[in-house]
Design a protein that fits this description.
With 332 residues, the protein is α/β, with parallel strands linked by helices. It has helices at 20-24, 31-38, 53-68, 92-99, 116-129, 155-158, 210-214, 224-246, 263-273, 284-287, 294-304; strands at residues 4-12, 16-19, 42-45, 77-81, 107-110, 136-142, 164-172, 179-187, 195-196, 221-222, 255-258, 313-320, 324-331. The chain contains 11 helices and 13 strands. α3 crosses α4 and α8 runs parallel beside α9. Bound molecules: coenzyme A.
Length: 332
Amino acid sequence: MTRSTILGVGSYTPSKVVTNDDLAKLMTTSDEWIHKRTGIKERRYIEHDDIGASDLAIPASKAAMEHAGVEPGDIDAIIFATLSPDYTFPGSGCLLGDKLGMPGVPALDVRNQCSGFLYGLSVTDAWIRAGMYKNVLLVGSEVHSTGIEFADRGRDVTVLFGDGAGAAVLGRSKDDDHGLLSIALHADGTGARDLCIDAPGSRYMPRMTHDMLDDGRHYPKMKGKQVFRWAIDKMPEVAHEVLDKAGLGIKDVDLFVPHQANMRINQLVAWRLELDEEKVVHNIEKYGNTTAATIPMALDKAFKEDLIKKGANVLFAAFGAGFTWAGAVMRF
Ligand SMILES: CC(C)(COP(=O)(O)OP(=O)(O)OC[C@H]1O[C@@H](n2cnc3c(N)ncnc32)[C@H](O)[C@@H]1OP(=O)(O)O)[C@@H](O)C(=O)NCCC(=O)NCCS
């Protein structure tokens, strides 16, 4: 079976820069607290309302298609990973297909938070290997800034997140030595309530009340230390799993593109993997955590900085809400 591969990547971030000092004007926090614990200096927010995840995905998708040398008419399917869809339903993939002028092209939304891009990559790979679709547009896009709380109650979560989009076009690899060599997905719902938005939810009748709004149940809630501990265990574990599956070792990794949740998490993961920190791509200092968009955004940065040479083995790993985690190895 032909392997799938990334033919092109692109990214887009809105122009509004929000620094740690800007947030310190709205809640009790400081540049020192945020930067020391997370590595984040600033993040981007949408410039005004009425910009959804599908809107940020448009320029990212166009850039990925241009990089891949394909037109919208060449795309056979869209996979859209997001936890901040434009609407509760339908999925943002349908909106993106419409905005890119792709009537009739199937669109699947993936709801796997920070692991969403890698979960989407796995589906994309299966479709391409099975010969079901030739070219798939895989997107990760988030608008967090309209869904976080700018007050002390939400500060632990709010300072972490930013808006942004990344996209990749996947197609058939030219040979079996290149492309996606291995991928692994995992989930453990025992951690579901450690990082979640509780309401509106289908188990509440009605799904949202004034009391729930007053209690801030529509904002993300997180047990930060718990998430941190799981991430630094599961990301190295899944990295070893996919390297073993691909018949590779740590020494064969040319570049590591991890999910960007926290610089300290990624430094610890690299240390546990005994991977040279220079091989780790990060952009969290400028963009914060953009959830499903972090991996394609960081990959785009790596391409632009010419860090991905012909034949490079690139390792990916992500961990996030669910809990879900995933890893992959691709040879370019
Ligand atoms: C969120 C995180 C940075 C917090 O760091 P931490 O080292 O656990 O926090 P600390 O224990 O040092 O500090 C907690 C204290 O800071 C306070 N605090 C929380 N957010 C704050 C903020 N933005 N500014 C200032 N103080 C803050 C807390 O109220 C707490 O105060 P207390 O000790 O008086 O109760 C860290 O837990 C983390 O990164 N976790 C993983 C989060 C993640 O990756 N989420 C996305 C998943 S993909």
